[in-house]
Amino acid sequence: AIWAEACAAIGEKAAAVCVILIDRAMHRPDNAVRKPNGYFRGMIRKSQTGALHLHRSIHGLLQAREVETHA
């Protein structure tokens, strides 16, 4: 299953962070993710090429939340 594939590729904690990021991406007001499994698989592929940067994604979420909070 995709969860096992993600855990093998990036570890359980990073996979859990991906799930949180995917959930947030599915609820974006513009350009929402419509196929979460495909998005997750894309994240796994990025991890295999060194192109997955979870820290940047988390930082982006925090910045967006900061903007929402102060708007």
Topology:
Elements: H1 2-10, H2 12-26, H3 36-49, H4 54-70
Task: Note the total helix count.
Answer: 4
Average pLDDT rating: 94
Shape: globular
What is the helix/strand order? HHHH
Classification by helices and strands: mainly alpha
Rg computed from alpha carbons, rounded to a whole number of angstroms: 13 Å
How many strands in all? 0
Summarize the amount of helix as a percent range: over 70%
* Amount of beta strand: under 5%
What can you tell me about this protein's structure?
With 71 residues, the chain is mainly α. The chain has four helices and no strands. It has helices at residues 2-10, 12-26, 36-49, 54-70. Helix 1 (2-10) packs across helix 2. The radius of gyration is 13 Å and the shape is globular. 8% of the residues are buried.
Give short descriptive properties of this protein:
71 residues; mainly alpha; 4 helices; 0% strand; globular
In short:
The protein has 71 residues and is an all-alpha fold.
